Amino acid sequence: MASMPQKITTFLMFEGRAEEAMTFYTSLFEDAEVVEISRYGADGPGEAGTVERATFALAGQRLMCIDSHVKHGFGFTPAMSLFIECETEAEIDRLYGALADQGSELMPLGAYGFSAKFGWVNDRFGVSWQLNLAE
């Protein structure tokens, strides 16, 4: 019996803001879409209408997310980040500005020796993004 190829997918756990985050992220990229979404019903265990499980794609990369119905004492950390290779200065400026809005800048856009232009932010949801301008 042939086995299915293994896939590794980035999985983001939110507490009530998964759909808001997905909508925001898919608005930033031309090649982006919500692939599938299932929601909690009235019988739970999560709040009715929140994301039980969803898959979305950004520039050909699939990610998954949920709204955790269990409160936890941890969030996202910059030790794990999403890395974007930008093709133009306009693209890196636009994405950095959008992701930094209501978020926090870890490394402002600039030349750091390893890159002509690089920036690192935590977005409004706490997800960490590194943006690099391809040389």
- CA-atom Rg in angstroms: 16 Å
Distance between the termini: 46 Å
Sheet having the most strands: 4 strands, mixed
* Overall tally of domains: 2
Backbone structural class: alpha/beta
So what's the overall shape? globular
Mean pLDDT: 94
Percentage of helical residues? 10-25%
Give me the CATH fold name of the largest domain. Signal recognition particle alu RNA binding heterodimer, srp9/1
* Helix-strand topology string: EHEEEEHEEE
The assigned CATH architecture of the largest domain is: 2-Layer Sandwich
Characterize the structure shown.
The structure is a single chain. The chain contains two helices and eight strands; from the N terminus they run E-H-E-E-E-E-H-E-E-E. It is an alpha/beta fold and 135 residues long. The protein folds into two domains: 10-67, Signal recognition particle alu RNA binding heterodimer, srp9/1 (2-Layer Sandwich), CATH 3.30.720.100; 81-133, Signal recognition particle alu RNA binding heterodimer, srp9/1, CATH 3.30.720.110. The strands form two sheets. It has a four-stranded mixed beta sheet with strand order 1-4-3-2, covered by helices on one side. 20% of the residues are buried. It holds the Pfam family 3-dmu-9_3-mt. This is VOC family protein.
